[in-house]
Amino acid sequence: MKIKNKLKSVVLSVTLIASLGLSTNAQASEITPMAIDLNGYEYIHNWGTTGQEVTWQHEATNPSGITSAVTRSVSREKYSSGTYSANATFKGMQWEVGVSAEVSDGESITETTSVTWNIPPNSTYLLRFGSKFGQASGTEKYWSNGIVLRSKTVSGKWTYMSFHDSIPIR
Question: Where does the UniProt annotation place the signal sequence (predicted)?
Answer without folding.
Answer: 1-28
